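Let us begin with a simple case.
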Amino acid sequence: MSFLNIRSLSKRYGTVTALDDVDLSVASGSRTAIVGPSGSGKTTLLRIIAGFDTPDRGEVVLDDIVLADGQESVPAHRRGIGVVAQDGALFPHLTIEQNIGFGLDRRAADRPVRIRELMDMVGLDRSMLERSPDQLSGGQQQRVALARALARKPRLMLLDEPFSALDTGLRAATRKAVAQVLSDAGIATILVTHDQSEALSFADQLAVMRSGKLVQVGSPQHVYLHPNDVLTAEFLGEALLLPAQLDGGQADCAFGRIAVNDKDGRGPATIMIRPEQVVLMTSPGLPHSSGDVPTVEAVVVGLDFCGSTSELLLHIGGDRRISLRQPSSDAISVGASVAIGMRGTAHVLKR
């Protein structure tokens, strides 16, 4: 059952259309990630849900309560929605205890107990309560910001790129911790991010935005493996996009004749293969098949070392060239002959 419903939401700033007839539903206790390039409308959508801005048209309904209907809007402080911003936005002149308790009734007898419970909930040591924000790491500050947002027991949590300023390792650890806290609390959450891997790993529903529109919504696995179009395919990760000739569930392409997920399609099309589906072999003899994986011969004509992986430029007969990332430990060099093939089924993109 939907907990948050957004219907026909539109917003313009002068001549710029920030949101264009957006519809989105969020289930109770679920995690939704809204992902898209800068300027796609993600933050505008979040601000309207939070009550920081009003739509020109459309509705925002939370738990059967209308929060916005066109420019008629419930004020942000009456919506019961928690917000964690990119920088945490902690008050630098207050202690951690004062930051977390900022929205709590100062006269409440259980206020100190509640603050300590929140510290435990976000995985921070209670000894930090007397510190100031500048005495904490970036990850710790974001957890304090989360605790402050949780203090008022919100019905919905909005996360606006809260991990983008953190180092890579700390970012992943903080994201997992925040996801666990929100899941344990049963709070529906919307994360806005431009980081594809962050969105895919955090959410159980993924919404892809482009030019003010939601171009695809679904489970992260489905949207990643079955994107609606070329731009979505490329935005969500590395993708091999190949021209192909369809023929009833099969396609002739640079990989030879392979299976596709369109049994009825015939004629020219563009197909997508994710890199993890690609099989590359350097064994002597270069077999034209390896078990159930048909292969074609190729020559390495370019190589860029990228650390744990290397990007190979492969020539596959005629003027066909494709780029492919492989583990650097495979020690493939320019000029090497290889065999490449594909596991599974290629995805046919919409025309």
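The second case is a distinct protein. As before, the sequence precedes its structure tokens.
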Amino acid sequence: MVFTWLHAAIIVFFIAGLAFAGGPLLGSLLLAPKARGGDIALPYECGMVPHGASWMRFGINYYVYALLFLAFDVDVLYLFPVAAYYPHAEGLMPVIKVFIFLAVLALGVLYFWRKGVFTWPKRVR
């Protein structure tokens, strides 16, 4: 194997990339002030001093809503490339595919609705 300028450039850029990524990490470890004790172990609550039991349990409903939002939000993102392609499409087939996609999303919403996921409980324990 012959060592060429292309190989040298790849090695130089690889080392530069590692230095670019690892330099700030190493610099922060070496140069950043070390804080111990005091308020550093307290949970962050908008800059206010927490009172009462700061480590409390949250209901799973918050996480379920967040996951459902992410799932349907990512699915809706698939519609943007379709909308960009639509002016170049020929025939009715792309419209039918979009309606099938939206029907599957609607069936997912109906399924979660029937399971009672969208009903908020009276009290979170």
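Residues 26 and 32 are 10 Å apart (CA to CA). The chain is about 60% helix and 0% strand.
Keep these points in mind for the review questions at the end of the chapter.
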